[in-house]
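In response to the reviewer comment on reproducibility (Comment 2.3), we provide here a single inverse folding case reported in full, input and output, so that an independent group could reproduce the run without further information from us. The structure tokens appear first.
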């Protein structure tokens, strides 16, 4: 996401790069390019102009320190203003209530049903909540079935009344059901329309009055750009919602919606959808997104995603095997599976500082590991557990069994051997001492 915007901003900052001081002329030239980049990202002209005017004003009012170049200062000021534009800090969801009622609103196709399930999954797995999903969309064909399938997938009950065409009554009955059976969060999926209309707004307003939700979340497709912002304004005027879930942030989005919704409706983006999997829902952090837009990566989100998939018991077993230099292809395969659970591979790599440019034109998708997995799965259990026994004839059989070339198998075995050597070194006393020094008191954590 924001690949094009990042490139344009980098080109803009090159105007001032290498110059010894900030002047009104070089700042104006830089901001002209930044404004063009924001407009191409589908940011409205007014917001783009106000943004660049603020950056220019602050830049001209600052003295450049000897240790900081003009371009570095411009990036820092732009970073601070991007954070201001998107809301400064993450805003938590309101779960005060017994049960807490969350109302999902948005247009048809925005992803309400899917993200109701994603949010339920997040609240269950990361907050220890017992959520109840409510099938309140009684008009769209198969909407109830879709929610039930998703509910079963994440292990969350779905309350529905298939024969009823009264969403207000369904929502009220669902809240009563939640109280009776000990659910602490109720997520009400509502009907959408292809466009904003009075009938839909009235119905959602009636549901709001009936169940008095702690939280109304507006769900909108980030790929619709300024249309998303305009729709947000229309919904907010009617519902006065509490926050936004911005979906499809992993797509070819230009970023205008993420950058301007807060400025237009003065309501925070609380979550962003970053993929199709039920785990692909992230808390929205303005500072982290600003870092990614400016090509700085997002190592904190990367670490958090890794920790979500981190199995302490398995890690302890792996540590013991590494200590005895017994890391094998079974362990390698298990590590690949954990990486895949973290999300989109290219998106993950872009979170690592400096990797954005490296992978920009690379074709990386979730099937990137497939050929490696197939080769490993073509090995016998004995070969996976004892890679050193894989001789020439075994390599040929593995290549034939996996539909690969011999050179593919040889390359994997060589990479695996190099990785084992590296892991042995990391597990050595010297490397452990280095890690202890890096984590010593007084050092700033990630």
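Designed residues, in position order:
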């Amino acid at each position: 996401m924001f690949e094009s915007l990042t490139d344009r901003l980098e080109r803009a900052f090159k105007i001032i790069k290498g110059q010894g001081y900030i002047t009104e002329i070089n700042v104006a030239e830089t901001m002209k390019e930044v404004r063009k980049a924001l407009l191409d990202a589908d940011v409205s002209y007014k917001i783009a102009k106000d943004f660049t005017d603020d950056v220019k004003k602050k830049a001209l009012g600052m003295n450049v320190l000897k240790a900081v170049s003009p371009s570095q200062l411009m990036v820092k000021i732009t970073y601070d203003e991007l954070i201001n534009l998107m809301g400064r800090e993450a805003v938590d969801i309101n779960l005060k209530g017994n049960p807490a009622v969350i109302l999902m609103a948005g247009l048809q196709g925005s992803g309400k049903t899917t993200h109701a399930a994603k949010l339920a999954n997040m609240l269950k797995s990361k907050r220890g909540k017992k959520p109840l999903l409510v099938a309140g969309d009684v008009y769209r064909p198969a909407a109830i079935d879709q929610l039930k399938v998703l509910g079963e997938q994440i292990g969350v009950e779905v309350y529905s009344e298939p024969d009823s065409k009264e969403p207000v009554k369904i929502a009220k009955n669902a809240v009563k059901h939640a109280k009776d059976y000990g659910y602490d969060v109720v997520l009400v999926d509502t009907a959408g329309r292809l466009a904003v209309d009075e009938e839909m707004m009235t119905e959602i307003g009636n549901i709001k009055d009936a169940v008095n939700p702690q939280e109304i979340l507006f769900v909108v497709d980030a790929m619709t750009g300024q249309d998303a912002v305009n729709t947000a304004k229309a919904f907010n005027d009617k519902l006065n919602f509490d926050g936004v879930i911005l979906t499809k942030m992993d797509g070819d989005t230009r970023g205008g919606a993420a950058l301007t919704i807060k400025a237009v409706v003065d309501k925070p983006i609380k979550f962003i959808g970053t993929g199709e999997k039920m785990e692909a829902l992230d808390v929205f952090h303005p500072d982290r997104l600003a870092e990614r837009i400016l090509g700085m990566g997002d190592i904190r989100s990367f670490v958090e995603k890794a920790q979500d998939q981190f199995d302490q018991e398995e890690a302890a077993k792996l540590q013991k095997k590494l200590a005895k230099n017994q890391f094998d292809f079974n362990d390698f395969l298990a590590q690949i599976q954990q990486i895949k659970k973290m999300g989109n591979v290219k998106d993950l790599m872009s979170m690592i500082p400096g990797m954005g440019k490296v992978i920009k034109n690379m074709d990386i998708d979730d099937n990137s590991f497939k050929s490696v997995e197939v080769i490993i799965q073509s090995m016998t259990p004995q070969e996976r557990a004892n890679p050193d026994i894989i001789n020439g004839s075994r390599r040929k059989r593995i290549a034939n069994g996996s539909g690969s070339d011999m050179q593919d198998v040889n390359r994997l075995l060589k990479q695996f051997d190099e990785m084992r050597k590296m892991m042995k070194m990391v597990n050595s006393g010297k490397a452990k001492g280095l890690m202890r020094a890096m984590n010593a008191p007084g050092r700033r954590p990630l």
